[in-house]
Amino acid sequence: MVERQSFFSFLPHLILALGILVVAFPVYVAFVASTWDPATISNGTMPLRPGPYFLENYRQTLFEGTARSSRSPVGLMMLNSLVMALTIAIGKIAISIISAFAIVYFRFPFRMTAFWVIFVTLMLPVEVRIYPTYKIVADLGLLDSYMGLTVPLIASATATLLFRQFFMTVPDELVEASKIDGAGPMQFFRDTLLPLSITTVAALFVIQFIYGWNQYLWPLLITTREGMQTIVIGIKKMIVTQDALTEWQIAMATAVLAMLPPVLVVIIMQRLFVKGLVETEK
């Protein structure tokens, strides 16, 4: 017997399809614009199909850059953004997981005070401490360097809190079993806690990678040479005040390329990412 499904059973799928269309259509238009010549885009006669300048526009974008606003090739900008995003993501996870391990499994004076000091920094975003941070980086001679781009953004109170909450759910029997086996603190951390934390690490890596990739204000302040610009800064500089002077095909190609690494990271780590967000019992 074939079961009949009412219209309301398809309604969630219809709403989801419409939502995907609303989100994906501007991305498709940006891709189409990146495959046409500037005259077609400026005249408002661009069709909704890819044009014949795909290879030419993307070759110029990746290896030559724009002729008017920024001569730095987008390939170099993407490399800078990739170094920044990876360093921030890995650095935040490494520092946070070690901090949480120390807070949960070691008994030392002012242990909870140290945790709450870390937690209070959640109320101090980069914009609030931007001037003293910039002053310190400038005094250390780290302007226009990868260390200047990444080190001030590595610490993360959110990741420390998440790791602490997870470590507190680890049964005490595992700690006792490790002690009986003669394992030291770092061996227990390496052999027991790290494997159990894979899903949490994956979820945080995706979030922090996208956070580092999309940084705008800090790279804008810390970089003065075109060779150190990130791709987000490059997109902004390509769009000049006079609309007629903007090379829209290069700007749209840059925008499409800027979306690829975060999307690839989410696709590759999708299963672990979702599991790390929704899993309650490890």
Describe this structure in words.
This protein has a single domain, classed as Orthogonal Bundle (MetI-like fold), CATH 1.10.3720.10. Helices cover 68% and strands 0% of the residues. With 282 residues, the protein is mainly alpha-helical. The chain has helices at residues 7-33, 38-42, 54-63, 74-105, 111-120, 130-139, 146-150, 157-167, 172-180, 185-196, 198-213, 217-222, 231-238, 248-268, 270-278.
Key descriptive features of the protein:
mainly alpha; MetI-like fold; globular; 282 residues
Put the structure in a nutshell.
68% of the residues lie in helices and 0% in strands.
What ranges have pLDDT less than 50 throughout 5 or more consecutive residues? Answer: none
Specify Rg, calculated over alpha carbons.
24 Å
From the N-terminal CA to the C-terminal CA, the straight-line distance is 42 Å
Q: Give me the strand/helix succession.
A: HHHHHHHHHHHHHHH
| CATH superfamily caption | MetI-like
Overall mean pLDDT stands at 84
Instruction: Give the tally of β-strands.
Output: 0
The shape, in one word, is globular
Structural class: mainly alpha
Number of helices: 15
Beta-strand percentage range: under 5%
Which range best describes the helical content: under 10%, 10-25%, 25-40%, 40-55%, 55-70% or over 70%? 55-70%
The CATH class turns out to be: Mainly Alpha
Major sheet characteristics: none
CATH hierarchy: architecture: Orthogonal Bundle
